[in-house]
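Weekly modeling sync, notes
Attendees: S.R. (lead), two postdocs, one rotation student

Agenda item 3: backlog of single-chain predictions. S.R. asked that every request posted to the team notebook include the full sequence so nobody has to chase files. The rotation student volunteered to paste the first one in as an example of the format we agreed on. Action items at the bottom.

Example entry:
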Amino acid sequence: MDQVILDLGSDGNVQLKQTWACIVKPKLQWSPIQLCMVNQQKINPMRCLHGVNIDIEGARVVVDFKVIEIINDSNPYPTLLGIDWAFDMNAIIT
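Predicted structure, as returned to the notebook:
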């Protein structure tokens, strides 16, 4: 993954189905949550991808992603790191 968006307004880490497919479709696990998009549309993730190693400029952490499918071609991001990632990194937001 070389394109990651940091969105601290997001409650979780999200990955598109297309991105998941590009990383050789690792095994997904059930996800009990429902996500609410910025336009208030509610979607159920396909599943959850657990234990992904993320390294951004030497800052390493293992995160879980909710894998979603967006039907149209206007995918604004391949992978989104949310507030969960920031907490795991002990990020200081100024």
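Discussion: group reviewed the output briefly. The first strand starts at residue 5 and ends at 6.
Action items: rotation student to repeat for the remaining queue; S.R. to check formatting next week.
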